[in-house]
Design a protein that fits this description.
The complex is a heterodimer of chains A (171) and B (101).
Chain A: H1 2-22, H2 26-46, H3 50-75, H4 87-112, H5 127-137, H6 140-161, H7 165-170
Helix pairs in contact in A: 1-2, 2-3
Chain B: H1 5-25, H2 29-53, H3 58-88
The chains are: A mainly alpha (171), B mainly alpha (101).
Chain lengths: 171, 101
């Protein structure tokens, strides 16, 4: 049963990620990415990470992708008629990295397959509770730094995207 | 967990590779940012799979931080693209050769 779910999600994720790169219209690329985000969220549910699945849908599909679509439609971009000249280099790199992954997996299969950690005895609390406890105890300082990053990104986005004030005064 | 960990590694490796190729072959700078999102998602799948495999919640916390960085990256990146489109009226990376001229 787990295998059926995994192969369904994996097939859709792989197909849509290829579509994101291959489709020439950026709106279609963004919509393919939307489908991929939903299926990654489904994969998280099968991996018992329910909190992250919800966050994936709310943040990625709800906020980030809407921002992308907003900018694509704001700039009214036409679809590309051709790819970049780097296509042969990219193909070579892709083939090389692909063989590298396959080789690594073949070599490590015998070593890594045996040692699965036994289930955690403390499984009374839910996933969100566990993530929250780790976030507010062990990872409290990184959590504060993350909020600082968001603040800096917000200020930076406002400053970069608005027109120059002196320009507006002169007009 | 009945599905072996290596399946997840193959999936995330494939998605990451697609992202790398997308960054290299596309000319539209927005699609390049979408490919970067693909790579971030591939690493997130890895983190969650290892977190389930080793029964350690730290991997999921790290995905949370990766999500924060992705949101910040998108906000700043799209602002840069809008500024670029305003000054250059093009978002194809072939046209951005100001230093070469």
């Amino acid at each position: 049963m787990d295998h059926i779910f995994f192969f369904y999600f994996a097939a859709v994720i792989a197909t849509t990620s290829v579509l994101v790169v291959a489709l020439r219209n950026p709106v279609y690329s963004a919509l393919a990415l939307l489908i991929m985000f939903f299926h990654v969220a489904g994969l998280y549910v099968t991996l018992h990470a329910e909190f992250l699945a919800a966050v994936q849908i709310v943040v990625y599909a709800g906020a980030i992708l809407v921002l992308y679509l907003f900018v694509v439609m704001l700039l009214s971009i036409k679809s590309e008629e051709r790819y970049h000249n780097q296509l042969p280099v990219a193909g070579l790199l892709g083939v090389m990295l692909c063989t590298e992954i396959i080789l690594l997996l073949i070599q490590s299969r015998t070593a890594a397959s045996a040692q699965a950690v036994p289930a955690d005895p403390v499984t009374g609390s839910g996933n969100t509770e566990m993530v929250g406890e780790a976030l507010y105890s062990t990872y409290l300082f990184p959590f504060e730094v993350a909020s600082l990053i968001l603040l800096v990104a917000m200020i930076g986005a406002i400053i970069l995207a608005k027109k120059d004030i002196n320009e507006q005064v002169q007009q | 967990m009945t599905v072996p960990l290596s399946y997840y590694l193959v999936l995330s490796g494939f998605v990451f590779l697609t992202g790398v190729v997308g960054v290299l072959i596309r000319r539209n700078i927005i699609v390049i940012l979408l490919s970067v999102e693909l790579m971030l998602n591939a690493t997130n799948i890895n983190f969650v799979a290892f977190s389930e495999y080793f029964h350690n919640v730290a991997g999921q916390v790290f995905v949370f931080f990766a999500l924060t960085v992705a949101a910040a990256e998108v906000a700043v990146g799209l602002a840069i693209i809008i500024a670029l489109h305003r000054t250059n009226s093009s978002i194809y990376i072939d046209d951005l050769n100001l230093l070469k001229r």
